[in-house]
Design goal:
With 396 residues, the chain is mainly α. It has helices at residues 14-48, 50-75, 80-129, 137-153, 155-189, 193-201, 205-244, 250-260, 266-283, 285-314, 319-362. Helix 6 runs antiparallel to helix 7 (205-244), helix 7 (205-244) runs antiparallel to helix 8 (250-260) and helix 7 runs antiparallel to helix 10. The protein is globular and about 90 Å long.
């Protein structure tokens, strides 16, 4: 028992540790670059196919509104094609009725509103020339002259925009017709799509894709129906204020308020600002301030009562995400992008939540319910799901 034995632990050198971390960072960085490049290619392809994708997206959104009554009729023995056609005719009739109701008021009241707007501009000119601004006539004429020259120098661009507008109108008619055709087929044959995916993609891919699509459909349908209800309440309450204050084009403003509600945050602000501006031009400052108070009260009711109560059941998106989505969509694709921004963000959120569920299932974790804090129970699964069954889904 002579020699003393000592156990030594060999550690890697600092250089090896640093190189290992650098190598891992490089791999992760390269993977991020590849993912970004793949997303860029995907967006490029979607941009090239936008003329086809746009009517599909509009048709899906319309179907979320029309599907509940179509499903009700089909459950009572009405043929799928007949139920789809009936609901489409009802929707077109309602839309035509609304347009027919507001167009006469536009024709009747627009000239008077234009005259009052001219008077308002003259009052604004008098106010600018008075204290405290004291803008002289020569300065004001120079400003008007500069604006006129700018418009004249842009006449070519304006003319091109007119011809572009003609092409856009033609494209809009084609998009509307394509959307209506797609709505009919989606309502008629939509329930067959997920089973077809299961048969075509097989297990487990078909189950995963079908589950994600069903969740997207439920989230989108809940969002559209909730926004429709919230927009209807907003339009009704603000409409009462418009009628009592005798604001011109009240019917048009009610419709604009309703449609603006489908663009969260931004749409309500724009519609409210338009209503206050018309009230200011037509009825004066007092009427505009009263209407502003009514709109602010209604929006407070919407933001603090209706939205949290209804949206929590249909879509779990923070207001910051909603605002950023609308801003990004409006910047990239105009009014169409602003309208589709929140449904797109909701669909992306559904995919991310589903991926999180799958990652947790593969890691042997049990996710807490939405809104609950993470506790020690995470990581202890209650029972193992079948290997081909998506987490959170029922086995087929």
């Amino acid at each position: 028992m002579g020699a003393e034995s000592s156990t030594t632990t060999e550690f890697p050198s600092r250089g090896k540790v640093m190189m290992s971390g650098l190598r891992s960072s490089a791999i992760v960085g390269l993977e991020i670059v590849l993912v970004v490049a793949a997303v860029w290619v995907l967006m490029w392809v979607l941009a090239k196919l936008w003329v086809v994708l746009l009517p599909i997206l509009f048709a899906i959104i319309l179907c979320t509104i029309l599907w509940p009554p179509v499903r009700w009729m089909r459950q009572r023995g009405v043929p799928a094609a007949a139920a789809s056609i009936v609901m489409m005719l009802v929707a077109v009739g309602v839309f035509a009725g609304v347009i027919g109701a507001i167009v006469p008021s536009i024709v009747d009241q627009a000239p008077d509103l234009a005259n009052r707007a001219t008077d308002g501009v003259k009052k604004l000119q008098d106010w600018i020339q008075g204290p405290p601004l004291n803008v002289q006539d020569e300065q004001l004429d120079n400003i008007v002259h500069t604006i006129t020259q700018k418009l004249q120098s842009s006449s070519t661009t304006i003319a091109q925009g007119v011809f572009s507008g003609v092409g856009t109108a033609t494209s809009a008619l084609v998009t509307i017709f394509t959307t209506l055709v797609l709505v009919f087929f989606f309502l008629k044959d939509g329930p067959k799509f997920v089973p077809w995916l299961h048969r075509t993609l097989g297990r487990p891919s078909g189950l995963h894709v079908g589950e994600v699509l069903l969740r997207m459909w439920a989230s989108l349908g809940g969002f559209i129906r909730t926004q429709a209800l919230v927009s209807f309440v907003d339009a009704a309450l603000i409409g009462v204020g418009l009628v009592i204050l005798d604001v011109p084009l009240a019917g048009v403003l009610i419709v604009v308020t309703f449609l603006g509600g489908f663009i969260p945050i931004v749409g309500a602000f724009v519609a409210g600002a338009l209503a206050v501006l018309i009230a200011l031009v037509s009825n004066g400052l007092t009427s505009a301030l009263i209407l502003l108070g009514v709109i602010l009260a209604v929006q407070q009711l919407e933001g603090n009562v209706l939205q949290p109560w209804l949206q929590s059941k249909s879509m779990d998106l923070h207001a910051t995400i909603v605002l950023l989505s609308v801003t990004l969509g409006g910047t990239l694709f105009g009014i169409t992008g602003a309208f589709l921004a929140v449904p797109a963000a909701s669909a992306i959120a559904v995919v991310l939540r589903y991926l999180n569920e799958q990652i947790a299932a593969r890691a042997g974790e049990t996710l807490p319910p939405e809104g609950m804090p993470v506790t020690e129970q995470v990581g202890v699964p209650d029972e193992e799901p079948p290997p081909d069954t998506p987490a959170g889904a029922q086995p087929a």
